[in-house]
Amino acid sequence: MSADSTSVLSIQDLSIRFGGLSALSNVNIEVERGHIHSVIGPNGAGKTTFFNCLTSLVQPSKGRMYLDRVRIDSLKPYVVARHGVARTYQNIRLFQNLTCIENVLLGMSRHMRASVLGQILASPTCRREERESMEKARHLLNYVGLNGRGDMLARTLPYGEQRRLEIARAIAGAPKLLLLDEPAAGMNSAESLDLMRLIRAIRSDFAVTILLIEHHMKLVMDLSDWVSVLDHGILIAEGPPLKVQNDPVVLKAYLGSRAARVDLASGKELDPVGRTGA
C-alpha cells in the first residue's frame, strides 16, 4: 500500500458495477486522519453506494480499500465495524421499538467483554460492565442533546431527535471513522446549525475522522476540511471547500447551463463580476 501514513482511509481504483450499470468508476480518495471530509454530488452520483461499499453492504467489482493500512474490501460488515467503522443512514435505521438507551447500548456491543455464561450467572464482572455501559449510554444521550429521553421508545422521538439518536449509537462503538449519510436531511436552518456544531464537537471530543455525505451545501462548505465530488460514479474534483465551490466542472455537474451564474453554497445568482446578489 502506497498511501500516506496520515490517511486513515485509502480508496484505490474503486469500481462497482450492477450488471451493465457502472455505479462507481476507478475512484481514488484519501481521507486524512482527524479531517471532516465530505463527499458530494448530484442525485445518482454514487455517494450512498460508496458508503455501502465502505461498510461491505456492497462488494466492489474492482479496487482496494484500506483502513489504517488494513485491507477491508473483502471483509464481512461486522468485521469492518470491529475495525472501527460506524455509520448513520440516509433513511434512519433505528430499532424503533427499543428505547433510546437500548439503541445506544447496541452500538457498544462490539466492546462488551462479559461472556454468555457471565451474563446468565450475573457475575460481578458482568454487573459492573452493565453499570458502566448504562452510564456511558446516558452520557452519550446527554451529549447529543437527548437528556431525559433514555427510557422513551425510539419511534416516539421527533425526526430530528431520531437523527441525533442514530449519531449517538454510531459513536457509542468508539469508531476510528464515522460515516454520516445526509445527517441534515429534513432539518431547518436552526437545526442544521446545531448539527454542524455537534459534528465539529464529535470530531474533537472523540478524536474521530468523519466522512460526510450531504446535500446541504452551506453546511458542507462551512464544516469540511476537504471535499470530494462524484458525478455519475466518477470523481470529478476534490480539494478544500473554496476551491471546489468555484470549480466550473463541479458547477456544471450540479447546475448545468446556469453554472456560470450561480454560487454553489448559497444558490444565489452572481452578477457579471462574480458577486452574489442580495
TL;DR?
The protein is an alpha/beta fold and 278 residues long. It has 10 helices and 10 strands.
Task: Give structural notes.
The chain has two domains: 1-84 and 177-266, 3-Layer(aba) Sandwich (Rossmann fold), CATH 3.40.50; 93-174, P-loop containing nucleotide triphosphate hydrolases (Rossmann fold, 3-Layer(aba) Sandwich). Strands 6-7-8-3-9-10 form a six-stranded mixed sheet, sandwiched between helices. 36% of the residues lie in helices and 22% in strands. With 278 residues, it is an alpha/beta fold. It is globular and about 60 Å long. The chain is built from ten helices and ten strands. Helix 3 (100-107) crosses helix 5 (124-143), helix 3 packs parallel to helix 6 (159-172) and helix 5 crosses helix 6.
Topology at a glance:
Elements: E1 7-18, E2 21-32, E3 36-40, H1 47-54, E4 62-67, E5 70-71, H2 77-82, E6 85-87, H3 100-107, H4 116-121, H5 124-143, H6 159-172, E7 177-181, H7 189-205, E8 209-213, H8 217-223, E9 226-231, E10 234-239, H9 241-245, H10 248-255
Parallel strand pairs: 3-8, 3-9, 6-7, 7-8
Antiparallel strand pairs: 1-2, 1-4, 4-5, 9-10
Helix pairs in contact: 3-5, 3-6, 5-6
Comma- or semicolon-separated keywords:
278 residues; Rossmann fold; 10 helices
Mean pLDDT: 87
Radius of gyration: 20 Å
- Counting structural domains, the number is 2
Q: Please state the overall shape, judged from the principal axes of the Cα atoms.
A: globular
Spatial ordering of strands, largest sheet:
6-7-8-3-9-10
CATH homologous superfamily caption of the largest domain: P-loop containing nucleotide triphosphate hydrolases
* Count of distinct strands: 10
Quote the distance from N terminus to C terminus: 50 Å
Count of helical regions: 10
User: How would you sum up the major sheet?
Assistant: 6 strands, mixed
What fraction of residues sit in β-strands? 15-25%
Unreliable spans are 115-121, 257-261, 271-278
Q: Based on the coordinates given, report the CATH architecture of the largest domain.
A: 3-Layer(aba) Sandwich
The CATH top-level class label of the largest domain: Alpha Beta
What is the string of helix and strand elements?
A: EEEHEEHEHHHHEHEHEEHH
Query: SS-based structural class?
Result: alpha/beta
If you consult CATH, what is the topology of the largest domain? Answer: Rossmann fold
Query: Helicity level, as a percent range?
Result: 25-40%
